């Protein structure tokens, strides 16, 4: 009969052979090096998508060069950036792992599953119409994937351990930019029925519904990332900023209106579900400052991205056949016309980690 030595059993054998002094030293060191939470679980759009769109029928993809030129030796994985994205950087800061994997189409090892995954899908929005138009994985579909994920984790850890994992894990929701940039302003699909304030209310309603579903599924530590100054990303400057490509004011107004109103709704939800840690992580101000004063953050160029002209190229339009790449990506706030560079993401994640994560873990 063959006996399998699991990683946990192997560690027990090693520790049992240590001296008393060595075991005490290990016990003293472990709190500092132990992960801050059991897992990081992410829902959202292209900002947090590490490759979930690779295996679905959508044109919103980036699993080809030059995407990923600075990721693990230059591998395009489906991350919408030159390197790591916020979910990767946050997982690392939490002490979980260096990269947070995609759930869809991935053959993940048990240790990767139980420490967290991302369900985010490029092109998704709070508004179901946004996800439908982009053929992205909607938030409701992301929740269905989460249900399947929970069953896999239970099979690995057992019911009791899984319950602890799901209640103590950190959940991040980062979505909403595509509702503004891809649904409301460039199409008549919602403008016929909703003005800007009423569309903001519609998005808040969808956000509230999603967060409450997540709480009912066991989440107790949830960070909701606000919509950034989407009118200032290069593509929106080109499309809505006039001849001088200024920040598109209406887009930013919708973003700030949503952020203000969803903040109020979050407070209401917290009252409804006592014991839930729920925070709005507002990145509007910090990203706006990076864009307006890039040199303060070790950057230089914010009005265009590194890929191609940097004014419109994103996803399939940013490719190695038709798009050149800037000579020094470390100078750029944006990688393509929509998504920040890894360097910018590091600034944002450091800000989020210091200001908001302590309220959640």
From TrEMBL:
Keywords: Signal. This is GDSL esterase/lipase EXL3. It comes from Asparagus officinalis. InterPro entries: GDSL, GDSL_lipolytic_enzyme, SGNH_hydro_sf, SGNH_plant_lipase-like. Transmembrane segments: none annotated. Residues 1-27 form the signal peptide. Pfam families: Lipase_GDSL (PF00657). One of its GO terms (molecular function) is hydrolase activity, acting on ester bonds. Belongs to the 'GDSL' lipolytic enzyme family. SUPFAM superfamilies: SGNH hydrolase. The keyword Kinase does not apply.
